[in-house]
Design brief:
- The complex is a heterodimer of chains A (205) and B (291).
- Chain A is an all-alpha fold.
- Chain A contains 8 helices and no strands.
- Chain A has one domain.
- The mean pLDDT of chain A is 89.
- Chain B has 291 residues and is α/β, with parallel strands linked by helices.
- Chain B has 2 domains: 214 residues, Rossmann fold (3-Layer(aba) Sandwich); 62 residues.
- Helix content of chain B is 31%, strand content 28%.
- In chain B, the strands form 3 sheets. A 6-stranded mixed β-sheet of chain B has the order 6-7-8-3-9-10, with helices on both faces. In chain B, strands 2-1-4-5 form a 4-stranded antiparallel β-sheet.
- The C terminus of chain B is likely disordered.
- Classes of the chains: A mainly alpha (205), B alpha/beta (291).
- Chain B: It comes from Cerasibacillus terrae.
- Chain B: GO terms for molecular function: ATP binding; ATP hydrolysis activity.
- Chain B: This is ABC transporter ATP-binding protein.
Chain lengths: 205, 291
């Protein structure tokens, strides 16, 4: 399975430079880290799914000595690796551009992971369900918009809860992050299991 | 003889097509050609063999093992060549090798390079610049470099020019020098089978019509031509299919010798080739009955 994860990373090849350029572009325009990390991770994942659809990778990787469980699990694991790579890149680029750590950086990183977990939990099972069909392109667009919308929703929801709701119930912002992270993680794990079930019964055309 | 592939009582149903009670054995150490018209069910059967689709009921055994328990062990021993393009367009053949090679413990880089040299495949050219023939050759090299016990190929020579087809067939002939290897290939180009196939399996409308040794088919199947007066309920039973025309009949038999004895000089009997067998079995045109 490790090889499948590695494949998901190296298949982009020179496209990684494009991703880096996009990342710097967004950061130069002073976009929030939560937005840049979530969006760029989603773009990389979409590209991985797209490459597979483009060449009917379902047929290729299912004919190679891998189980469907491994193929699905590799993709879900890849998101974590891609997130880690992009988050590291954002932190590094941020350091270079602004020459300082931002205090809210950790919250932004965790926030982007929550958004990625939730969007992945919704969209990945659909990607496996509708794989090899023309609807895939539309699903990719929905996924990207879900991530973009998710970052804004998360941002404003956090601000509202932090300023209005949490003080009234005596809860700190950190608790909010812990609860949200756990919920997102549970959904992601549930989605992972669901995708394995879906893919195991899928007919590869 | 040991069977490498065993399909038993397979049922698989789609909206417009079904396979009913299909059974098939592929023998170890031989080349089996899988023939049939478009939509006859060749690709469906091959996907069943590769576990890309699963039967509604029935049993698929590869090397005597079941996919549900031994999926990886089975796939490690199979090399596949598909008819469609499954190589990453933006990668070079060298990149593709780096992706595929680690999937197999028994992958041999020296063998890979040897095949690439022999088939004149450039290692550092992107896949999207490869011609159809080069892509097929690349797929074959990938399939052979891990020294599989079984090679499954779906229409590998379709759309290839005669030179590439010849190279392809010659390479397969070399592979078969090792008597432990087995090849199962589907094709429309019947002439490709003659130099390499030991057995022929013919599928029509989801049913296996026959699965026989090539020499047996060549010896027994024949096209019979004669006048319509020769046909009656008794004589028609000697034929697998009959096509009536204004000037007489043409029929396919699977017992060349018997026809010679029954009709003697009243009919013209010619050995049938695989294309003719496919044509008559499919129904051809006109009034045809097929047992």
């Amino acid at each position: 399975m490790l090889h499948l994860i590695k494949k998901d990373l190296v298949m982009h090849k020179l496209a990684w430079f494009t991703f880096l350029a996009m990342l710097i572009f967004f950061m130069l325009f002073d976009k929030n880290q939560i937005f840049v990390i979530a969006l760029m991770s989603a773009v990389v994942m979409t590209n991985a799914f797209y490459y597979e659809e483009d060449i009917n990778g379902h047929k290729l990787w299912n004919a190679l000595p891998y189980t469907r469980n491994e193929i699905v699990s590799a993709r879900y694991s890849s998101l974590l690796i891609v997130f880690f790579v992009i988050a590291t890149a954002v932190i590094m680029v941020g350091l270079v551009l602004k020459n300082e750590w931002e205090l809210g950086l950790l919250q932004e990183v965790i926030g982007s992971l929550i958004v990625l977990f939730l969007a992945g939990a919704v969209c990945f099972p659909l990607f496996f369900w509708f794989g090899q069909k023309n609807t895939m392109f539309m699903l990719f667009v929905i996924y990207i918009f879900l991530v973009i919308g998710g970052t804004y929703a998360f941002y404003y929801l956090y601000r509202y809860m932090n300023q209005s709701l949490l003080p009234s119930i005596n809860l700190s912002g950190s608790w909010l992050f812990v609860i949200a992270s756990l919920m997102a993680l549970c959904m992601y794990l549930f989605s992972w299991r669901l995708s394995v079930k879906i893919y195991q019964t899928k007919e590869i055309l | 003889m040991e069977n490498v592939i065993e399909l038993k009582n397979i049922y698989k149903s789609y909206k417009n097509f079904q396979i009913e009670d299909l059974s098939l054995q592929v023998k170890k150490g031989f080349v089996t050609g899988f023939i049939g018209a478009n939509g006859a069910g060749k690709s469906t059967v091959m996907k069943l063999m590769m576990n890309l689709i699963r039967p509604d009921s029935g049993e698929v055994k590869m090397f005597g093992m079941d996919y549900s328990k031994h999926e990886k062990e089975i796939k490690k021993r199979i090399g596949f060549v598909f008819d469609d393009d499954i190589l990453y367009k933006e990668l070079t053949l060298h990149d593709m090798k780096k992706l595929i090679a680690p999937c197999y413990k028994q992958w041999q880089d020296s063998l890979f390079r040897e095949y690439c040299d022999r088939l004149e495949l450039p290692l550092n050219q992107k896949m999207n610049t490869f011609s159809k023939g080069m892509k097929m050759k690349a797929s074959l090299v990938m399939a052979l470099s891990h020294q599989p016990d079984l090679l499954i190929m779906d229409e590998p020579t379709a759309g290839l020019d005669p030179i590439v087809r010849r190279q392809f067939i010659e390479l397969l002939q070399d592979v078969m020098l090792d008597e432990e290897k087995t090849i199962f290939l589907s094709t429309h180009i019947i002439s490709d089978l003659a130099p390499i196939a030991d057995f022929i399996t013919f599928i029509n409308s989801g049913e296996i019509v026959f699965s026989k040794a090539l020499h047996e088919i060549e010896e027994k199947y024949a096209i019979v031509r004669g006048s319509l007066e020769l046909l009656d309920r008794d004589t028609e039973q000697y034929f697998l299919s009959i096509k009536r025309t204004d000037v007489g009949f043409e029929a396919l038999t699977s017992d060349y010798q018997q026809i010679k004895e029954v009709f003697q000089d009243e009919v013209i009997v010619e050995k049938a080739n695989l294309e003719e067998i496919m044509y008559y079995s499919k129904g051809g045109q006109g009034n045809v009955a097929f047992d």
